[in-house]
Amino acid sequence: MNADARVWLAENAAEPGTSVITSLPDVSELPVAFDAWRAWFVAAARQILAWVPRDGCAVFYQSDVRHRGVWIDKGYLVLRAAEDAAVPLVWHKVVCRRPPGTIAAGRPSWSHMLCFGATAGLSQPGPDVLADAGAMASPRAMGEAACRVAVRYLVENTPTRVVVDPYCGHGAVLAVANEMGLDAIGVDLSAKRCRAARSFELGRSRRPRDAEQQLARADARRPPR
Questions:
Q1: Which distant-in-sequence residues (6+ apart) come within 8 Å of 31 by Cβ?
Q2: Residues ≥6 apart with Cβ < 8 Å to 5
Q3: What's the pLDDT tens digit per position in 11-51?
Q4: Beta carbons of 65 and 75 less than 8 angstroms apart
Q5: Given pLDDT bands bounded at 50, 70 and 90, which one contains residue 224?
Q6: Are 4 and 167 in contact (CB under 8 A)?
Q7: Cα(114)–Cα(60) distance, integer angstroms
Q8: Which is it for strands 110-116 and 89-96: parallel, antiparallel or unpaired?
Q9: Which terminus of the chain has fewer CB atoms gathered within 10 Å of its CB, N or C?
């Protein structure tokens, strides 16, 4: 659905059996200054956590960034929002976008994947570290293997019937949710990404290394904020 995610969440109450899997936009993806983005990020995460019903979960997939030489820990920003919303952390995994041991000059070669839920239990913990994020629909996308870990947890441990991705991008989360038998709703401010999500096919994405190289080239061309 082509819409502003925060407006859509405010206008559409979550039904029981709904969970969220998403990645909030990076500072480079919003036309605002860094401090405004940071405040927006925490507020958006808090809104998602408050929106999810008690029988659901919210899973965030976030990659840290550097801003003017300072490391910005997005996992911390999500945890800060969760404390404000009084929603407990169920699990926190590290997902490698590049092989373990890779030396990354810019953004880290791994991402956070954090799951929050008021009543969900961790009956099958699974690995704390995923060695391969899987193929990526875009340089900043959640890898398909990581999507499957998140969706599988919802299928096996919650009564989730619908997965919502308020910042769906190219739609990997939605496609994996459908593949595993769940309904899915995607929201994105970009009409182009919404069209891509509707036609997205699993297995046709870039491998993490190719996606990271494309992202590095894009970052090198972008003027500093």
A1: none
A2: 44, 166, 167, 187, 188, 189
A3: 999 999 999 999 999 988 888 999 999 999 999 999 999 99
A4: no
A5: very low
A6: no
A7: 5
A8: antiparallel
A9: C
